[in-house]
């Protein structure tokens, strides 16, 4: 039985001389949270616009499989979309706006009104239902925008920067809501820059850069694919210039934490003992511990590596 909700096959899109998306392929399974990640200019927005049917790929294809039907673009009642830039009516009452958005997505007005009331109460905005959107804080506006994207219980939802403007308490709340969406049957495509949250939330991840895939898989698999698989944190006595370590053949990167400790990312396969012997000749080490690298660190290192390969290609 086919479980793919979305299939993107060798999709390419260019604008004049800029190839925004280059032979990109991925599949999203039913009832999973799939994170599409990449730096600014990686091609994520162009990819999302092709999924929404706003623009068409120059080559390749996009296929959705929803409610037993295979289509290039889903019906509005099947699709939810939270854009990065807010697009609701700022001068209309919140309640009226949400009901209207529900009706646009083929909900009965009574059902849209009931769902609106329930969601506003859940996010703590029931007493602001008659207020205009523009009177809310940035975080509360984001809550309303989020509700508008999932009010109609879509089969597939695209959440572009859903945590924008939210404080840590509300970030935790929406982590739970997104998991609930998945568990209740909604497939989620997530675009976000908060790597610590993505790492906790996503079932699978695709990291792209310059329109191409860099890494793809589950978070553990992504970490295993990354070049740097060892992270060593050293507490040292001296306050020294860390740039002297960046030329080491064993070191991919080194950063100083706020508490003064040095965080080293070592190249795959490097000996920690050999590395420590080299460092101890330059600085007095008072404490050592190692830990698994984070998704954020994988992201940074993979993009930097990809950019380095581009520089080498251009120099040939």
In short:
34% of the residues lie in helices and 30% in strands. By secondary structure, the protein is of the alpha/beta class.
List keywords for this structure.
30% strand; disordered C terminus; 4-stranded antiparallel sheet; 14 strands; alpha/beta; Rossmann fold; 6-stranded mixed sheet; globular; 316 residues; Alpha-Beta Plaits; 2 domains
Helix share of residues?
25-40%
The biggest beta sheet reads: 6 strands, mixed
Domain tally: 2
Report the principal-axis shape.
globular
The side-by-side strand order for the widest beta sheet comes to 6-7-8-3-9-10
Over all CA atoms, what is the radius of gyration? 23 Å
Strand content bin: 25-35%
Order of helices and strands: EEEHEEEHHHEHEHEEHEEEHEH
Q: Which residue ranges are poorly predicted, with pLDDT under 50 across at least 5 consecutive positions?
A: 310-316
In round numbers, the mean pLDDT is 88
CATH architecture of the largest domain, by name, is 3-Layer(aba) Sandwich
Beta strands, count: 14
Structural class comes to alpha/beta
- Distance N terminus to C terminus? 47 Å
CATH superfamily of the largest domain: P-loop containing nucleotide triphosphate hydrolases
Top-tier CATH class of the largest domain: Alpha Beta
The CATH topology annotation of the largest domain reads as: Rossmann fold
Number of helices: 9
């Amino acid at each position: 039985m086919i479980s793919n909700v979305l299939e993107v096959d060798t999709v390419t899109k260019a604008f004049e001389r800029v190839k925004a998306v280059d032979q990109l392929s991925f599949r999203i399974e039913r009832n999973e949270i799939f994170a599409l990640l990449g730096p600014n200019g990686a091609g994520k927005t162009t990819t999302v616009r092709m999924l929404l049917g706003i623009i068409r790929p120059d080559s390749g294809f996009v296929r959705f499989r929803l409610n037993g039907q295979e289509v290039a673009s889903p019906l509005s009642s099947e699709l939810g979309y939270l854009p990065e830039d807010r697009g609701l009516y700022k001068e209309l009452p919140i309640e009226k706006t949400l009901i209207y958005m529900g009706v646009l997505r083929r909900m009965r007005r009574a059902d849209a009104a009931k769902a609106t009331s329930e969601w506003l109460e859940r996010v703590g905005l029931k007493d602001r239902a008659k207020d205009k959107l523009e009177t809310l804080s940035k975080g509360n506006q984001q809550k309303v925008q989020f509700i508008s994207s999932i009010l109609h219980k879509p089969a597939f939802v695209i959440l572009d920067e859903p945590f924008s403007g939210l404080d840590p308490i509300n970030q935790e709340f929406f982590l739970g809501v997104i998991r609930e969406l998945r568990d209740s049957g909604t497939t989620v495509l997530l675009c976000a820059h908060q790597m610590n949250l993505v790492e906790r939330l996503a079932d699978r991840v695709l990291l792209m850069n310059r329109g191409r895939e860099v890494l793809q898989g589950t978070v553990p698999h992504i970490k295993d694919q990354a070049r740097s698989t060892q992270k060593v944190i050293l507490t040292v006595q001296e306050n020294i210039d860390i740039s002297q370590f960046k030329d080491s053949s064993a070191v991919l990167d080194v950063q100083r934490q706020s508490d003064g400790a040095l965080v080293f990312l070592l190249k795959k396969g490097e000996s920690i003992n050999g590395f420590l012997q080299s460092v101890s000749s330059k600085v007095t080490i008072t404490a050592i511990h190692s830990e698994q690298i984070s998704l954020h660190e994988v992201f940074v290192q993979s993009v930097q590596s990809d950019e380095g390969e581009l520089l080498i290609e251009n120099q040939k």
